[in-house]
User: Fold this.
Amino acid sequence: MASIEDKKLKQLSRRQLLKLAPLVAVGAFAVTRWQDPLVNRGVRLSDWASGLLFRRRHPAATFADADVVPFAKFPYNGYDDLDPGVDLENWTLTVAGNVRHPGEYTLAQIQALPRIRQNTRHICVEGWDVIGRFGGARLSDFLALIGADRSSRYVSVECADDYYESLDMATAMHPQSLLCYEMYDQPLDRGHGAPLRLSLPTKLGYKSAKYLTKLTVTNVLGAQRGYWEDQGYSWYAGL
Amino acid sequence: MASGAQAGVPDAKPEARMQLVTAAYEHPWAIRFTHWLNAVAVAVLAASGLRIFRAFPSFGTKIPEHDLVNIPKSLTLGGWLGGALQWHFTFMWLFAGSGLLYIAYQLISGHYRTVLFMPRDVKGVWPMARHYFLFGPKPPATEQYNPLQKLAYTATVLCGAAALLTGLVLYKPVQFSWLAWPMGGYHLARVWHFLAMCGFLAFIPGHLIMVVLHGWSNFASMLTGWKRDPEYLSRRSAE
Assistant:
């Protein structure tokens, strides 16, 4: 269509311009008080999609011993204190929630479960990553030991340094998810979360809480979903 | 029909009423809609992405960390890492959605023939570049887009595809491990992701300068779809 009446062209142009009206909706992101609710919804949508993508049997990559960084180059990363002063002698893990055998569990009981050692990549939300050597019991074995109701939705943990976390049951049951008491074949040192931490190769680093003191199997997460999550990080944080 | 509608205007000259202009409907709705949605999404993703990069402005190891740049906070969006991630994880949906809609429309409608850079366009690139950058003679316009434009637009779409795929690997390196492999692994995916953004940042200033140089009618066509007196048509009718 090369030649057209001027008036007709103006009419058509106006009509076509109006058809772009739906784009105005994006302007909602410019309204300051709507920004937080909108982007929170965006993260929730992303978390939901992430849950769908998760494959229960698909392992995170594991690495040869030669690819593991030396222990000295494995960063100590803590949100607050690298030594909350855990009494290692008298430490126990408190188990609660939807389990048949709640109570106090000693490190020896956890270490009596099959020991898994794996070289996996620890990926930080900041963008760096490090391949380390982790050892411990499968979280799924421990959940069996305590008689956890595996149809429950979440496993949440509390820590000696007031950190707290929670994760979906599918990830807790993943064969690489560890209750970690060793790094580089040595007992965890205080900076890395002695005596017990999570090591979750299918999650971002902040999910792998250190200095565990309590583990709860539950269907409900209260206002406290995770230390960083409650400030805006993704709760699912799956890799 | 048009003359009937105008019969009530007593002193309008017949020739003014029937004034014919040359125009072409260049940009269908889907192209205009996705163009503007994408413009917003790219701006938000780049600004929030730079804030995410600030958390670890390096491509190497955490220990020792070699920061490459100190990105000014004023260029970033989100306030802190968690906020920037929220924006990033929200607008990635708009970016992917508009990108997929754009590609699907181009392929199904056949409109891609006007803009996709093809081997036959190669010989036209240098004369056009010489005209723009070295004040060489202006090659005659025979199509909606000149070869240099096609090259720029096609490259930008490829940049978008690269940004999306490398982003998927960074977001889900375990679930999309098969996609990380052809990129040279997780670390290189982060480099490609950054370079894809650089590609957009390289394209945008040139694009905006050209929009300014080509005037209002050209700019308005991305809003209304209609362009008055497109060069390639006036040339054709003059022949």
Remarks:
- The first strand of chain B starts at residue 20 and ends at 25.
